[in-house]
Task: inverse folding
């Protein structure tokens, strides 16, 4: 599974997706799931949720779910191609954009465009959360984990890794289903 | 991100806090991961294209290797009941991470009814109507800007 055609397709899918990721990874999850679960059936919805979860405790940028999907589709070449597919174009854009941005940093239109994206990002990330919760909250146990963890992430100073680890440990006991 | 900030501003003194905030503003605005964009912008600032490429590789290499290692382990042991159960718990908490992220982004909208409306409309378009993202994103951003502009007049 490493001929150019097999790898070109995931690379193209992710590059296109990434150029829409104005609100970061979390704003494009429904579109990503639509692409990799429905359009190109590379994974099932629950595999997608599992890979997303697997990428969360990993150190580094939270786009790593893309690396995992690529790896799942076409092993190491797939992982490299999808990672570069998402990271390459946006990095080039940042490289080019950082100069322009300094020139326009006080321009009114720039502030308006940025403010205009904020509520859209809020809605998109909320849609991502709804999609993941629909996949993961299959039992009352996992649903209560989601509720409790949300409260902890918002109102406690616990390290997120600690919460993720505790949730995995509670899951491992088998009490959740 | 807090770690990148601490290293670049407080420990290495590559940038002042204000310069870092400006750079972060750009990187939140551009598509892609924020941390990755900040890293590239930092590298570019000091060493041009070579700096950007070095920073990018430095940021990505170790995480990519570690996440693939986790994928290998998951592939090998994912079928074991205890691993499957642990993953159900982990995935539930990972969903919570995204929900908390959404609520934090939405918090400043409390005093902005038009913003709440646009956030809701975006949510319905993507989560309920399942419309594709490419047209929804620019349409909603433009609609919001238009409504805000009219409400100010």
Result:
């Amino acid at each position: 599974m490493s001929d150019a055609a097999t790898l070109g397709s995931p690379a193209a899918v992710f590059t296109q997706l990434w150029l829409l990721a104005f609100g970061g990874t979390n704003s494009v999850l429904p579109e990503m799931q639509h692409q990799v679960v429905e359009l190109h059936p590379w994974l099932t919805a629950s595999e997608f949720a599992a890979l997303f979860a697997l990428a969360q405790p990993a150190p580094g940028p939270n786009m790593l779910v893309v690396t995992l999907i690529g790896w799942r589709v076409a092993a190491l070449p797939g992982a490299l191609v999808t990672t570069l597919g998402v990271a390459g174009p946006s990095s080039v854009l940042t490289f080019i954009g950082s100069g322009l941005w300094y020139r326009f940093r006080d321009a009114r239109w720039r502030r308006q465009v940025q403010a205009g994206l904020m509520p859209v990002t809020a809605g998109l990330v909320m849609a991502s959360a709804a999609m993941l919760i629909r996949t993961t909250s299959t039992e009352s146990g996992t649903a209560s984990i989601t509720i409790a963890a949300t409260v902890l992430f918002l109102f406690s100073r616990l390290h997120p890794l600690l919460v993720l680890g505790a949730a995995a440990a509670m899951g491992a006991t088998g009490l959740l289903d | 991100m807090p770690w990148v900030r601490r290293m670049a501003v407080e420990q290495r003194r590559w940038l002042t806090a204000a310069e870092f905030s400006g750079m972060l503003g750009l990187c939140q605005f551009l598509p892609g991961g924020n941390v990755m964009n900040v890293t590239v912008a930092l590298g570019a600032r000091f060493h041009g294209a070579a700096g950007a490429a070095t920073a990018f590789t430095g940021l990505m290499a170790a995480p990519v290797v570690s996440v693939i290692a986790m994928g290998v382990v998951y592939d090998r042991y994912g079928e074991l009941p205890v691993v499957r159960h642990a993953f159900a718990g982990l995935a539930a908490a990972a969903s919570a991470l995204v929900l908390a992220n959404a609520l934090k982004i939405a918090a400043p909208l409390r005093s902005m009814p038009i913003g709440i409306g646009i956030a809701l409309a975006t949510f319905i378009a993507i989560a309920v109507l399942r419309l594709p993202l490419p047209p929804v994103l620019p349409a909603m951003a433009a609609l919001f800007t238009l409504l805000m502009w009219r409400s100010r007049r």
